[in-house]
Structure formats: structure tokens, C-alpha cells
What does this fold into?
Amino acid sequence: MTVLIEKRAGYRQLTLNRPDRLNALTAAMGEVLLAALNEAEGDRECRAILLTGAGRGFCAGQDLTEVMPTEDGPPDLKPLLDGYNAVIRKLRSLEMPVVCAVNGVAAGAGANLALACDIVLAARSASFIQAFAKIGLIPDVGGTWFLPRLVGTARARALALLAEPLSAERAEAWGLIWQAVDDDRLMDEAQALTARFAQGPTIGLALAKRALDAAEDNDLASQLDLERDLQDQAARTPDYAEGVRAFLEKRPPVFTGKR
Ligand code: LHQ
It folds into this structure.
């Protein structure tokens, strides 16, 4: 299995699983990952996702042995990228939080796969490399969209054009990721965070995710309208009623994530 799928209490852990290739992506693996996300989306018991990698790397990007130019000419990358792009769109549209535990190097498309997740934790020894320029390519799988929004244009340009590794700690300092975590604590922390989301007000969290994504392109007036409409939706969920009741009764809320 190129992607291990583990059902946990309220969430699914998806583990990229080609450790001898640092979990480099193949077209088939992209399809398996998309299917796993679709399946999680269809499971009412699943309220969060944790994405990580097996072995010492998170993901070394595209498996370069699959896209070798031949004597007949260059490979057709478009179908391959359409497949990966579907994964990125799904990660952003999933109506639940997606946590990414970057357990080791995240290079090329692997780095940008991580950046498409909602909360990125990384092992202190991990690094992020926009490796594309080293082989004459451009950042893909959302990289040119995520990078400037997360770290600003100057840093995005340097990351893309220099293709140098960025340490997890620097990635945190720059706001590229949420947190760098001691290596031996990474999976415990990531699982605890995902389990916390799995007990969260799922619809409210999904609406917050949608509002923040829309803000990337909206002007203030449109965003205020959107916030009003999504807040109205959030306030109609049982979790809102429970949240307010629990506050007034001075007890922790018990959210169901139901509509
Ligand atoms: C690999 C890979 C790999 C195959 C390590 N492929 N085997 C592009 C084209 C088409 C459409 C879709 O989009 C893309 C986007 C992209 O992702 S382009 C960028 C592709 N990725 C890279 O250029 C990164 C290539 N890898 C590296 O630079 C290094 O492996 C890093 C810096 C990630 C890790 O270095 P090390 O820790 O020194 O590990 P290593 O290089 O020894 O790798 C371990 C093994 O994994 C090794 O195989 P071996 O048989 O010698 O043990 C590598 O050949 C293999 N591997 N990345 N992308």
C-alpha cells in the first residue's frame, strides 16, 4: 500500500508509504491519496485527517523515475499534475481540519502537499525544499499560490529560485508552518491535535476554513458579507447551542459535529 489508512477515534491517519524513496509521489499514489480523502469525506464518523510519511522522509516530491524525458521527447506532465491538483483542491475543500505531521524532508511537490493542509507540524530535524529549480521546473501543486500568501513575496521568491532547504524552525519563524516540534514528540503531538479536532465543532471549523480561504481573494466588503452568511450557518448547528450551554453551565462542551 503506497498510502496507509488507519481509522482512529474520530479521525483517519493517512501515511505516505514508500519509505525507501522518501515517499516520492507517483501518479498511482496520488489517486490512492485522493480516494482516501474522498472516503474520509463520506464517513460521518471521520471529523479530522492526519497526514504524515513513513520512515525518515515526509515526501521527496514527484518520483523522478516516473517522469524521465526519453529519446521520444519530454513526458506529458499535464495528466499527472491534474491528478495531484485534485488532491490539493480536495484538501482545501474538505469540511474538516487536516493536520500534517512533516516527519522528515519535504521536497518539491511534497513540500507543497504539506502546505495545502490546515495545520502543519514539523519535526525539528525536518526541512522544506522547493527543489524544483534544481531540475529546471517551477513550484507546482499549489506552491506558487501558497508560498507568497504564507511567507510574503520576497521569501517566496528566494525559496522558489534558490531551492535551498528551509529548516523546520525557520519555517515556523517565517509562518510557513504552525510549529516545529521535537522529533520524538511529533507524532504524539500531531495525534493529540487531530484527536482534539475530532471532538471539535466540525461544521464551525469547516466554515472557518472556508472563510479564511475565501479571504485570500475577497475585498473587505465581500468578506464581511461572507462572514455574516457563514456565521449564520454556524449558529444553526447543534454544536453552537451546546457550546453556549456548556459555557453558561461552566463545563466543557460535548460537540457532535452534526448538522
Ligand atoms: C527519489 C526521489 C525522487 C525518485 C529521493 N524520485 N527517487 C515534477 C514533475 C512532474 C509532475 C509533478 O510535479 C513535479 C513536482 C516535483 O515534485 S519536482 C521535485 C522532485 N523532487 C526532487 O527534485 C527532490 C529529489 N530528492 C532530493 O533532492 C533528495 O533525495 C532529498 C533532498 C529530498 C533528500 O536527500 P537525502 O536525505 O540525501 O536522501 P537521498 O537523496 O539519498 O534519497 C534516498 C533515496 O530516495 C535515494 O535512492 P537510493 O536508491 O540512492 O537509496 C533517492 O534516489 C530516492 N529519492 N527523492 N523525487
About this structure: The radius of gyration is 19 Å. The beta strands are 3-8, 11-16, 49-53, 57-59, 98-102, 105-107, 119-123, 127-129, 166-167, 179-181. The chain has a mean pLDDT of 98. The first helix runs from residue 27 to 42.
